[in-house]
Amino acid sequence: MTEFEQIELRHRAQIESAVLRAGLRSCDLAFANIFGWQHVYASRVAQCQGAIVLKYRIDGTPRVAYMEPLGDGDWQCLVPQLLADAACEGQPLRLLLSEQGVELLATEEWAVDCNRDAWDYIYRREDLAQLPGGDFKSKRNHFARFVNRYNYRFEPLSAVHIEECLRVDAEWRERRGTNDVGTLRRVGLVGRCAARR
After folding, report:
1. Do 190 and 57 form a contact (C-beta atoms < 8 A)?
2. pTM of the predicted protein model
């Protein structure tokens, strides 16, 4: 049985190194997000068959999912262990995979569902600074409305802003009918595709 443990700061270098080696680009694999949201998603980490595996609760519900295994582990040996862990939770195995992960797992016994709404959108820094061309027209319009509507200024984020940030967050949640940060939903799930047996 795979032993999952609470994610601690001591896991940072190991997780970041594995993500970099894997070449996966997802905000959900940033250690700050994994560590910072673990109280909402009950995220856990394990070493399994030479790979690092991250396990979490989908949107903070009892449904369990596993992020794409990171490392040089043998997937043929790893998947049965994850199947067993999911079975102990009384659930099917849900793996959130990149395109490469789907290819590694490609077999007739797996169903693969792609959820485009969960994809990360990655932009070039220069494009976000300049917003050039027709593809960025709606973003330029949003920016223009913001500039015309609000009196704003840029300040480096520091400890003196914490109370104000918490106040703004509380107001935002109240307007949306929730006072519990645990009920807030993330925009998307990790990775591009979910594979299940």
Report:
1. no
2. 0.62
67: how many CB neighbours lie within 10 A of its CB?
26
Kindly state the percentage of the chain with pLDDT values over 70.
81
Given a cut of 60, is residue 175 above it in pLDDT? yes
Distance from the first to the final alpha carbon of the chain: 19
Task: Extract the tokens encoding 149.
Answer: 């509507």
Contact between 105 and 79 (Cβ < 8 Å): yes
CB neighbour list of residue 167: distance below 8 Å, 6 or more residues apart: none
Confirm if 195 and 97 have CB atoms less than 8 A apart: yes
3-state secondary structure the chain: CCCCEECCHHHHHHHHHHHHHHCCCCHHHCHHHHHHCHHHHCCEEEEECCEEEEEEEHHHCCCEEEECCEECCCHHHHHHHHHHHHHHCCCCCEEEECHHHHHHHCCCCCEEEECHHHCCCCCCHHHHHHCCCHHHHHHHHHHHHHHHHCCCCCCCCCHHHHHHHHHHHHHHHHHCCCCCHHHCCCCCCCCCEEEEC
Place of tokens 């797992």: 105
